[in-house]
DNA sequence: GCGACAG
DNA sequence: ATCTTGTCGC
């Protein structure tokens, strides 16, 4: 699958900011689709000594559980890619660091995706277009940001029970929710991206949280990303060992 | 000028 | 994001 929108990625902060201002006008606020079958979750991990990114895209199908709203996910497909990233991590510009390495993974996907979930912000962003929102807009797919910490906004601490939440405000506007995804754990910062509303975003994410703070699909791709990084590091250390032996 | 600051 | 062991609480 290919983006329906395109713009340069090899840009500096100033141009990236202009792109964000231009794209945010295109974001659509609408109720989340009722019938969701497939969701995509993405994540990228790094090492501390180089600029190599270990990207993962996972496709999961929703399994309706007994009765009401809750559901679980079934892993359907995993795509990975290892590539050095160009853009540095700058708060507010995460899209320009991570999306370039994620795009080739979407290109390999042919099945339909109903929702994209990303480890980061949706519209809860200084210019209203965080990683999840940007990604959803590029493919014109509903998207939700599920971050482990706040980028922008004000809130009061939610209750300590799973499901407790408070609104995330920017001025007088509600841009997301601070969600307690597990008893007594640090809350998640959930915000809608493209084609989604604040309440729908939180409800959907909460239903994807089984027994951990991080929702199942993101937790899974995060795990795969870290495994990929460790296996590659081991591989590289073995290679350099062989080189060392052959030279001595 | 100072504090805040997704991953 | 990454480094990193034990430890406190449910």
Query: In CATH, what is the homologous superfamily?
Result: archaeoglobus fulgidus dsm 4304 superfamily
Average pLDDT: 95
Q: What is Rg?
A: 19 Å
Strand % is 25-35%
Count of helix runs: 5
Determine the structural class based on helices, strands and strand pairing: alpha+beta
Largest sheet: 8 strands, mixed
CATH class: Alpha Beta
CATH architecture: 2-Layer Sandwich
Instruction: State the shape.
Output: globular
Low confidence ranges = none
Distance N terminus to C terminus? 49 Å
| Strand and helix order | HEEEHEHEEEEHH
Please give the number of β-strands.
8
Number of domains: 1
Q: What does this 3D model show about the protein?
A:
The protein has 248 residues and is α+β, with helices and mostly antiparallel strands. It has one domain: archaeoglobus fulgidus dsm 4304 fold, CATH 3.30.2170.10. The chain is built from 5 helices and 8 strands. It is globular. The mean pLDDT is 95. The structure holds 2 DNA strands.
